[in-house]
Amino acid sequence: MSELTGTCLCGGVRFAVRVPFERVIVCHCASCKKISGGGGTANGRARSSDITILEGDEQVTTYQPAEGSAKSFCSRCGTNLFGGGWPDSEQCSVRLSALDEPFAGPIESHNFVRSLAPWEVLPDDGAERNDVRAP
Ligand SMILES: [Zn+2]
Ligand SMILES: [Zn+2]
Q1: Which ranges of 1-130 does DSSP label H, i.e. alpha helix?
Q2: Ligand nearest to the CA of 113
Q3: pLDDT, tens digit, for every residue of 69-112?
Q4: φ/ψ of residue 32, rounded to 5
């Protein structure tokens, strides 16, 4: 077990997460497109209890959409931090884009590929393709 650290764009929020991740997924669903400003989100699956907010706890805001799981972001700069129901769910997602060091991969699954943007091309990365969520 080791730890990775992450930050938001404004630097107000700092966190640590225990790794290895249970699974590494890129999600191309409509919600992830909205919140990411791009093709979707890249996520490491962790347990909520594996995440420690080191700084800026008061800046972390959690939004619970009508459908799907809660998503958390920095209320100052909007950086996506966690999804999958953090902090209340047993398992959650850590946005790989928030990690301080570029995550080396590999990506294990592309989820919601049925929602792929018309301009988006999946990389030849050998990862699973799932129409919706991976089993
Ligand atoms: Zn921020
Ligand atoms: Zn998604």
Answers
A1: 30-36
A2: 2
A3: 999 999 999 999 999 999 999 999 999 999 999 999 999 999 99
A4: -65, -35
Instruction: For residue 125, report the distance from its CA to the centre of ligand 1, in Å.
Output: 31
Separation of CA 30 and ligand 2 centre (Å):
7
pLDDT of residue 1: 75
Residue 110 amino acid letter: H
Distances (CA, A) of 84 to 52, 76, 99, 118: 16, 21, 17, 25
CA distances from 79 to 34, 69, 112, 125, 128 (A): 13, 17, 22, 26, 27
Report how far ligand 1's centroid is from the alpha carbon of 81 (Å).
10
Return the residue matching tokens 């953090």. Answer: 86
38 has a pLDDT exceeding 80:
yes
Give CA–CA dist 2/118, Å, rounded. 38
- pLDDT confidence of residue 132: 86
What's the full length of the chain, in residues? 135
